[in-house]
């Protein structure tokens, strides 16, 4: 049984007439992991994986948040929302506007 995120990932891939192998080769994500995401067998997805997928499809990372949110059973805490928003802003700045500090710097400051 697939998830909303899995359905959307499959739709994006098929819309571009790509095979899972094509996406795996271009993103560096294993074929097995991508398959598990599309099938809904993988419930949690790391930020790095979603950033790679976002870059590959040319879709803002925020776009996937709605699909991930549908799958969550409990609401995010205020701290989780703040972190998510901060990370999204930094990724947008780095990926789409090519400015800002590296994500490693951002994460190291957050963990202090």
Automatic annotation (TrEMBL):
Q: Which domain of life is it from?
A: Bacteria
Q: Name one GO molecular function term.
A: DNA binding
Which residue ranges does the record assign to the HTH cro/C1-type domain?
9-64
Q: What is the annotated signal peptide range for this record?
A: none
* Cross-referenced InterPro entries: Cro/C1-type_HTH, Lambda_DNA-bd_dom_sf
**Membrane-spanning parts:** none
This protein's name:
XRE family transcriptional regulator
